[in-house]
Amino acid sequence: MYKKTLREYFPQLLSREEIQHRINGNRELQEQFNAWSEEQQEQFLGMCSGERGLKVLYDFFCKEVLNPEYDPARLESLLSVILQEPVRIVKVLPNDSVRIADEGALVVTDIIVELEDGSIANVEIQKIGYLFTGPRCSCYMSDMMLRQYRRVRRQQGKHFSYKDIKKIYLIVLYEKSPQELKEMPTVYLHRSRHIFDTGLQMDLLQRCVLIPLDIFKKNMQGKPIGTLLEAWLTFFCEEDPERLGKLFDTYPMFREMYGTLYEMCQNVGQIMGFFSEELRILDRNTAQYMIDIQQEQLDSQKEQLDSQREQLEQKEMQLSRIEQELADQNKKAKEEAREAARKLFEGGATLQLVIAAMNNMLTEEEIRAVYENN
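Predicted structure:
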């Protein structure tokens, strides 16, 4: 069966041999290429030659496509289908925020824009879904809200009013989804807003949208691309040439975007530098992910040990209490037995008869002691 190739859509693509020739013709590039693993070399050659689709989620590709400064329409289109309302970007905001140091290392792409109605949207792309997704998102949204509050209060001065504070949107796309999202394997779009359990109608301004692209891709296998949202998500995560061809035929805007990225691939040296940086970021993020995993395991083990220690202490206290109760009961039983023996002696019973009557409640020595003291 005939299958379209990406070269049919992008005749400017270099062949694998041409790319390899350019690399071999430059000692620095050759050393850089040889430093990669065989799998990484194949990935790079296949990506730049069109044998496979591009890794659009790579930071240098994604920022080229979504850069709102010279082509805001693309990001406006993405935000509109995600937020389900028309969006117009009026300003790009700096992303040097008050986040805790090193948190930025966990985010590959981070674009913050102000929309026409004054609200703020932060689009993030993470290659690995890190632990503690909920707390992280809460901190990010709090940061965005604080930034808006400070900016608006500074602009308005004494005329500041809380009605000037607008919605903030945190939109996170995951290449590999976090565990919480994996537990819902048929859902690839999660939208949140705060509501009251009483039905109170009060709009709190934080909005969060989580999109696990790996789950989307799995759910779309064998299905046609039916909506612009599905087209965008396919553009981000699909590498199969045939599937990409169907995307380009149905939505030509994505063919144009891909063409822009393939123009970047003409500069082999530059794209190799970008690719190396992407590998470095991935290694760093993977290391951070493993640290988080190990820390969570250590915390879990510590909690288990603390719980076991507490249970052991409770059992020891319970055992001590039982031993004391048994000792008290034994002491009382001994006293009752001695009293019973005294009464038998007072009634004229012989020593042998009392010993037999006690039935091991007292030792023979204890009974003789009662007899002698009687």
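Summary: Residues 97-105 have pLDDT under 50 and may be disordered.
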